[in-house]
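My current task is to audit a protein record that another person submitted. I have pasted the whole thing underneath without changing anything:
***
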Amino acid sequence: MATFLVIRTQTGPEFDPAKPLEEQTLWLEHAAYMDELTEAGFFLFGGPSVSPRVPFAVWADDEGEIRRELARDPWHESHLVIESIEPWAIRLRSPLLGDRV
């Protein structure tokens, strides 16, 4: 497993920048899916930063696995679009994270 930095943007055709995340269509389905991936250890950390960017640290075998998994997200391509996926060698980390990263 390797760590990747994934950048998604809130630029899909159904994302309404005038509304908060919780008022977007399919919010509950998207949130449940993201929680499921987090509990499974796929997402190490992440969340919205400066709009429209949404960076995530992901633990996966390769970019293909990331793309396949994110394609299952109810917001994939409708609300969130993958901007980039790149390997990320994390050299500095808090000891509170343990050995996962």
Notes: The chain has one domain: 2-90. Residues 2-90 form a domain with the Alpha-Beta Plaits fold (CATH 3.30.70.1060). The beta strands are 2-9, 43-46, 53-60, 81-87. The CA atoms of residues 46 and 56 lie 4 Å apart.
